Amino acid sequence: MKFTHMRSRLSPAGPVLLGSALLLFGQAAYALNYFELETYGYQTASRGEVELENFTAYTRRGTQDAPTPDNNRGLVRNSLEATYGVTDKTEVAGYVDYSRARGAGDWDLKGSRAHVRTRFAEKGEWPVDLGLYAEAEFPRHDVNDLEFELRGIAEKDVNKWTFDVNPIFERTLKGVEKEEGTELHYAASAIYRLNEHWHPHLDLFGDFGPLRNFEGRDQQTHLVSPAVDYFFGHGLSASLGVAFGQTRASEQQIVRARVEWEFR
Question: Is residue 127 part of a domain?
Fold first, then answer.
């Protein structure tokens, strides 16, 4: 997560992303994406910048109804991401997602994803810094073949604190759940910029279910996750956190880690 103050003009990608919102209100993708336990901030990769990221989530305790995933071995999810700054405020990225039971042999390819993300105006010009994120997901060995996500980004700096909120709308474009309706998810972070190296934060993740008929509380997924980011310098950073499920349908304990390298 970046906190540089970069000045740039409104991106032409903004209207394209806003137009894609029209796709959302009709059909949906189900359940929280444990491969993407991340709150996106306002800052994007700058023009010509490359970001390589590895995200790992290890489920130590599953849902309350299935508390011991994969025969007590735990489940490991891993996502590899490459991001490129197309302009000073618009980036594109691609991901591949894998999972396996801890201690098992081969990794299972779970799917691939691609996103475009943009930010509006200039840092601090508006009362709240705003951005938009659109993602296409291509699951493998799943009931759905193509899913779409549109994520709003709102960020506010208050002294040494940064607050980020991501309302997320998801739907299935092709697959069994195509007729289920748009689903509402969320991600949010409260970040304390202790110094140039340490940024502890508290993150919230979850999904309410279809907009037209929210799931009951026990069927919803909600996580609370304390974490800390460390910035080594020279574009290298790492993050470590633990997520705790708040409902029966949530995975109850997850260790999550991220390593990111930014360069030109």
Answer: yes
pLDDT over 90 at 105, yes or no: no
**Residue 12 one-letter amino acid:** P
- Of 241, 244, 238, 249, the C-alpha closest to 224 is 244
Closest by CA position to 33, among listed 17, 55, 53? 55
- 6 located within any domain: no
- Cα→Cα distances 98→23, 57, 75, 201, 260, Å: 28, 11, 11, 26, 18
Please indicate, yes or no, whether the overall pTM of this predicted structure exceeds 0.90.
Answer: no
Range of the domain at 23: 13-263
Note the pLDDT of residue 159.
97
Helix/strand/coil for 15: helix
Beta-carbon contacts of 103 under 8 Å, excluding residues fewer than 6 positions away, are 73
Provide DSSP, 154-191. Answer: EEEEETTEEEEEEEEEEEEEEEGGGGS--EEEEEEEEE
Closest CA to 164 of 129, 113, 112, 119: 129
pLDDT of the residue at 23: 38
Query: Is 39 inside a domain boundary?
Result: yes
Name residues whose C-beta falls within 8 Å of residue 6's C-beta, 6 or more positions apart in sequence. Answer: 43, 46, 88, 89, 122, 123
pLDDT tens digits for range 46-90: 999 999 999 999 998 989 888 766 555 689 999 999 999 999 999
The CATH number for 73's domain is: 2.40.160.40
| Tokens 């009362």 found at | 127
Residue type, 206: G
